[in-house]
Amino acid sequence: MTHPTSHLLLHEEDAFRALLGMTALRVGASARPLVAADVEVELRKLRAVGQAPACVLVEVPFRELGCAASPWEELVALRRVADEYDVPLHMDGARLLEVAPYYAPHATLQDICALFDSVYISFYKGLGAMTGAMLLGDAGFVGAAVPWRRRLGANPYTSLPYALSCRAAWRAHAGSFEARWHKLRRLAAEIGARHADVVRFEPSEPTCAQVICRLKGASVEALERARDAAEAATGARVFRRLRRADDGDSFFEWTLGPTHLEVEDAVFLEAWEVFTREIG
C-alpha cells in the first residue's frame, strides 16, 4: 500500500510486480502527501474481507511533490493506524536526511525512524557518495532481507569502495542539511517574489533542500536559450534538465548541495534576473 507518486510505481520498471509478484494498492491523492485517514479507510475495507497489505510504504518526503512532507502529527497518526491494523510501516527515506531539519521542532532523526518498522536511506543523493543505501530494521527483519540482496542481483564481489565513499560523504556533509534548507527557503522566497510571472515553487515554502520549480508559458527551447545566456553572463546555471508537465508548463527539480553553501545568494539571484529577462 503506497501513495500514487511512490518511486516504486514511477521509476522502478514494475520490479515489485515482475520479480516478486506483488500488487500495489494506491492510496491518497496524488497532489498532496499521504495522511493517516487515507490509509485507515483502505485498511478498514481490507479487514472487512479478511485481507491486509504486506506493508504501508510512506515516502519521507514525497519527491514527486517537490519533497513536500507529511506533517509530524500525520506520521505519528500513521504509526497509530499501522499498530491498530497490525501492518508493518516502511519508510522510503531516500531523502530523509534532507527533510530531517523540517521535523526538528518535534523530533530528532532517531525519533522519525522510530515510528517505522523499517527504513531505507540513500547515501548518494544529498550526501553525494558514489552510490549506496542502507536498510534499517530490527535484527530479524534485516536478517530475512539479506538473502534477497543476492536473489535480486545486488550482491557485488565487494562493496568496500562504496562503503568508504558513503562513510566519507556522511562525515563531510551530514551536518549541512539545515543550512542548505534555510538557504533554499530564502532563495525561493526572493525569486518567487521577484519573478512570480515566470516561476512557481512546489511546495511554495520548501520543506528541505529540494523543490520543484514550475516555469510558465515559454517553450523548452526558449527556456534553454535563456538558461545558457544566464550561465554565460553569471557563471551560474539555473537548471540542468527540464521536464514537461501535463498542463504544458515546464519544470525541474532544484536541489542545493553542500558546495552551494559556498555561493552567495546574490549569485543565484543575478542568474535568475538574467534568465527571466532573456525569456521575455
How does this model look, in words?
- This protein is of the alpha/beta class.
- The strands form 2 sheets. It has a 4-stranded mixed sheet. A 4-stranded antiparallel sheet has the order 5-6-8-7, with helices on one face.
- Helix 3 (36-48) packs parallel to helix 4, helix 9 (177-194) packs parallel to helix 11 and helix 10 (220-234) packs across helix 11.
- The chain contains 11 helices and 8 strands.
- The chain folds into 2 domains: 7-173, Aspartate Aminotransferase, domain 2, CATH 3.40.640; 177-279, Alpha-Beta Complex (Aspartate Aminotransferase, domain 1), CATH 3.90.1150.
Element layout with pairings:
Blueprint: H1 7-11, H2 15-20, H3 36-48, E1 56-59, H4 72-84, E2 89-93, H5 96-103, H6 109-114, E3 118-122, E4 133-137, H7 139-151, H8 160-173, H9 177-194, E5 199-202, E6 210-215, H10 220-234, E7 243-244, E8 250-255, H11 265-279
Parallel strand pairs: 1-2, 2-3
Antiparallel strand pairs: 3-4, 5-6, 6-8, 7-8
Helix pairs in contact: 3-4, 9-11, 10-11
Known CATH architecture of the largest domain: 3-Layer(aba) Sandwich
Low-pLDDT segments: none
Percent helix: 40-55%
Radius of gyration: 20 Å
Shape: globular
CATH class of the largest domain: Alpha Beta
Keywords:
single chain, 280 residues, alpha/beta, Aspartate Aminotransferase, domain 2, Aspartate Aminotransferase, domain 1, 2 domains, four-stranded mixed sheet, four-stranded antiparallel sheet, 11 helices, 8 strands, globular
Question: What's the quick description here?
Answer:
By secondary structure, the chain is of the alpha/beta class. The chain has 11 helices and 8 strands. It is 45% helix and 13% strand.
